[in-house]
Amino acid sequence: MPETKTSPAADTGPPPAFADAVRDETSLRRFLHGLPGVDAVGVEQRAAGLATRSIKKASKLWAIDMAISMVDLTTLEGADTAGKVRSLCAKGRRPDPDAPEVPRVAAICVYPDMAATAVAELAGTGVGVASVATAFPSGRSSLAVKLADTAYAVEAGATEIDMVIDRGAFLSGRYGQVFDEIQQVKAACGDAHLKVILETGELATYDNVRRASWLGLLAGGDFIKTSTGKVSPAATLPVTHVMLQAVHDWHATTGELRGVKPAGGIRTTKDAIRYLVAVREVAGERWLDPRLFRFGASSLLNDLLMQRRTQLQGHYSGPDYVTVD
Amino acid sequence: MPSWEYAPAPESRAIANLKPNYRMFLDGEFVEGGGEPLKSINPATEEVLAEVSTAGSADVDKAVKAAQRAQDKVWGRMPGAERAKYIFRVARLIAERARELAVLESLDNGKPIRESRDVDVPTASAHFFYHAGWADKLDHAGYGPDPRPLGVAGQVIPWNFPLLMAAWKIAPALACGNTVVLKPAETTPLTALVLAEIIQQAELPPGVVNILPGAGEVGAAVVGHPGVRKVAFTGSTDVGKSIQRSLAGTGKKLTLELGGKAANIVFDDAPLDQAVEGIVNGIFFNQGHVCCAGSRLLVQESVAEELLDKLHKRVATLRVGDPLDKNTDVGAINSRAQLTKIQELVASGEAEGAKRWTSPCPVPDKGFFFAPTVFADVSQAMRIAREEIFGPVLSVLTFRTPDEAVAKANNTPYGLSAGIWTEKGSRILWMADKLRAGVVWANTFNRFDPTAPFGGYQESGFGREGGRAGLEAYLDV
Amino acid sequence: MSDRISVAKTYKLYLGGAFPRSESGRTYPVADAKGKFLANAAQASRKDLREAVVAARGAFKKWSGATAYNRGQVLYRVAEVLEGRREQFIAEVAASEGVAAKRAQALVDTAIDRWVWYAGWTDKLATVLGAANPVAGPYFSFSVPEPTGVVGVLAPQRSSLLGLVSVLAPVLATGSTAVVVGSQDRPLPAITLSEVLATSDVPGGVVNLLTGHTAELAPWLASHADVNALDLTGAHAEQRKGLEEAAAGTVKRVLRTPLEEPDWAERPDIGRLRAVLETKTVWHPTGV
Could you tell me if B420 and B466 lie in one domain? Predict the structure, then answer.
């Protein structure tokens, strides 16, 4: 396992290389607007090109298991209940009851009020509990509420917090406000890892995605995450390319490893493998690690399990052979 | 953590329907030629793929006469709308047999299946489709009310895009009412002969298209035949010059698409990650066997280090190997001769003091392969900055100001293509205006389309292929 | 009846906007159609030709970089000045070509009109020959005609003014610059035309006009590596093949014309414009 430094301390601020960038609002703006642009057609073409990689046989099986271990198995519904969450946790601990060798998922992702239930269910399993917070999904509340929301989830035992950025502030250019908010949420996280949801579907351009990615990294996010899953488009390959490039470049400058989490709309094994190819070829092989790459997904897991069976059994599997949770 | 290696994902070579023998296509029939048969080699394995009959001088004469007959009696008189339907058929048949053609192309040429599948074959079909539509609209093309065909077109094409170049040549010739005698390259004759099969299946009248494999002397006989009224050549500048010389005084219409030494110019405000992609695509697409390859990278000094760093990392991810593997990015060099030429020029680059970096990627032991190579600290005076290498070798130079970039970019007798990378719109247009090149790609590279005229300035040739402008080459105007 | 002795004119080369004698010091006698001595013309050498190419290359950037509107105005101005010298041209054409005054007048009028016709083309070429290419992808692709560079013109041997105008004006309209070898035996209208060019707004070097022996100069023009295109109109039959061969050395665009001069009075098409134009295709992605 590579040595990972994935949890920057909130109070120490960004690494020296970027100390100037966050000195004040003006420097922050200058830094973010000074990032190289992203050519939309170029990045989409590169993503489409990499998506043609043909992953077969052993490499496919390896990818399926890797993908399973990267899943943040998610339920974020108004109708969520303790029962629903418990069954999801069971699924996450042991994705395929017939195949104990299948890795457990990375985390179960729930609303803050369900965090305690999940924590109890997953104690000692190594599966993390991720809780969304900060007035998820819109982020439209006061900072105090957002911090309280975060504290609530952390106190419940959540090991990972998925916060949303204030897209309104970002789009109106108040980068400092977004930065401060992330920093404060990070502080509220304590030991919990922070994933910063950019909601790329609302940022509209790749240039914005790049700026928001850097903003999230500068402010101390352990992960940058594409989407809440409540806005369309959610995760896309080219957006994830831009974010993977950002964590790659961050590492090249600071030596720190930060993660990326595409979430929403990734439903098939084929999709997941395309993301893994992007991880390998854009960020680099060391990001093929659940500590540095996650899938925010719900139905993806069952497709991965079904494809896994197909690979091993040599014939196509069916939905009745994987559990519905 | 174990590393994730992609398992081989080879396309089945059975799809190519490879036959042990291929014969030339003359007057609607596949016949033995009078020349010494050639053996077409798979450059990735050095095995013989097939034996191909070649044309003797009598065959060239027969083919030109058949083409003349077909032009006089059938094709030249046929209403454009009818010609169009034949050409549309060819477009469709290529699309239908796309997979077969792609695999065969990769076997014969060594290019990755990803490229033959996604670029060569679909674009070849698109060229026929586009030009088919012109056949009955030539009176609207801006060459007068009733532009006439020239007669028999003698066409000689290179080995880098064997099927695509055949399409670039044949489609406009037919649309304009000419008939064709085409010589494919000696090392890559197979897909052109499958195209002949398609032309037969499309029931084009005999003699309208004739395909005569062979070496240079067959090409010389085709272009030199007095019955040929139009010559189109794509290939090296040296051969192009000798063809132009040989046609002096004959009155034959000539178009040439020759070599290049394109500058790909990156400014400090460029979208750097996409620029890296464009640079990679510009020089490593098709193993760098591209006349318009971006073989000279001109980087603004202020971002040179950062860009080179990114470039090395990216190039190191390129997968070199089996052309039939769907994950291969860089395939085989087309021939031993070409490999030797590349090696020789690379050696000159080292000897002249350029700093060589070669991708650490694994390279197959067998076959003709050359790992992607980037030379830094190159100066304009070095051979690798002036001569066309036609391989996966990039020369990197730097500049400080836009004027200097233009001056360096234009400092070559060639003038085929150029690339510009900057986010500043007015600079793009300024640069595009100043660069002496027939094709300028801004924030992209190596884009081709039948509707977009392609061709060179200066010693990169004359005449255009594609678009309305491309029709001129095949009309008596 | 005046018995005043007229001031005879010395006919010189037109090179880089100046009127030098040949560096070789050579001249050759020019006679009218009946063999009567008219004047001594400068007999340009290959070194004069070399200087002419340097001048034409030097002028290319500015001339090709001028707006099409500006080029059109400059060329139209030439027509205005031509009109003012109409009588002189009629006399010279009549003497050179041995035609009656009425015929000479028609030739000169057509020549002036021809110049106006080409002057009007400067700002229409890109519209007529350019294109927005509807490529199958997220790109904007456009093609524009651009001047090829320095054009070597072997002017018609017979048609001393109308023919010359018909081959020179299209070169200038595109934005190319020219090195012209005038009609060997009928050079006087050409020299007068160069005086018109010098006194209108055409920048020096855009047109360089050499008089002399076509057969002596043509091979140097055809093989000159800094010449982009060659118009063979006035080339001798026995030299044409060799000139084409020489032109191949640097892949020159060669305009091959029938040995027999056409009827220059006929309305031209745009073939001569196309012959000295390149097509440049530019691509850019379209995305946000």
Answer: no
Residue B213: which domain range?
13-258+457-474
Is residue B257 flagged as an active site residue? yes
Q: Which amino acid is at C177?
A: T
One domain for residues B387 and B267: yes
CATH number, position B94:
3.40.605.10
Domains held by chain B: number: 2
A228-272 pLDDT tens trace = 999 999 999 999 999 999 999 999 999 999 999 999 999 999 999
A126 at interface of C, judged by CB pairs closer than 8 A: no
C253 contact B CB<8A: yes
Count of CB pairs separated by less than 8 Å, B with C: 115
Of residues C135, C148, C251, nearest to B258 (C-beta): C251
Each residue of B270-311: pLDDT tens digit?
Answer: 999 999 999 999 999 999 999 999 999 999 999 999 999 999
> CA angle, corner C5, sides to C2 and C9, nearest 5?
130
Q: Chain B contacts of A38, Cβ < 8 Å?
A: 271, 273-274
Which pLDDT tens digit goes with each residue over B96-119? 999 999 999 999 999 999 999 999
Instruction: Tell me, yes or no, whether C13 lies in a domain.
Output: no
pLDDT computed for residue A1 by the predictor = 36
In this structure, the answer to whether residues B127 and B270 fall within a common structural domain is: no
Low-confidence ranges of chain C (pLDDT < 70): 1-2
Domain that holds residue C48: 27-285
- In a domain? residue B74: yes
- Chain B touching partners, 3 or more CB pairs below 8 A: A, C
Q: Is residue C140 one of the residues assigned to a domain?
A: yes
Q: In the annotation, is A149 catalytic?
A: no
Is the model's pLDDT at A210 over the cut of 60? Answer: yes
Q: What is the domain partition of chain A in residue ranges? A: 33-313
DSSP state of A283: I
Residues of A in contact with C286 (CB under 8 A): 41
Are B179 and B318 members of one domain? Answer: no
Verify that B129 and B203 share a domain, yes or no: yes
Give the mean model confidence (pLDDT) for residues A212-219.
98
Token representation of residue A142? 């006061």
C117 with C195: CB under 8 angstroms?
A: no
Residue C3 lies in a domain: no
- pLDDT tens digit sequence for C132-177: 999 999 999 999 999 999 999 999 999 999 999 999 999 999 999 9
The reply to whether residue C285 touches residue A205, judged by beta carbons under 8 angstroms, is no
Under DSSP, is residue C220 helix (H, G, I), strand (E, B) or coil? helix
Shortest Cα–Cα distance, A198 to chain C (Å): 18
Residue B253: closest C-alpha in chain C? C256
Does pTM surpass 0.90? yes
**B151 located within any domain:** yes
Interchain pair A39, C138: CB under 8 A: no
Residues of A in contact with B423 (CB under 8 A): 37
Same-domain status, B71 and B183: yes
Residue B359 to residue C155: CA distance in whole angstroms: 57
C131 inside 8 A of chain B by CB: yes
Question: Taking the domain A33-313, which CATH number applies?
Answer: 3.20.20.70
Beta bridge partners of C279: C145
Is A204 in Cβ contact with C287 (below 8 Å)?
no
CATH number at residue C275: 3.40.605.10
- Do B219 and B367 lie in one domain? The reply is no
B203 and B278 in a common domain: no
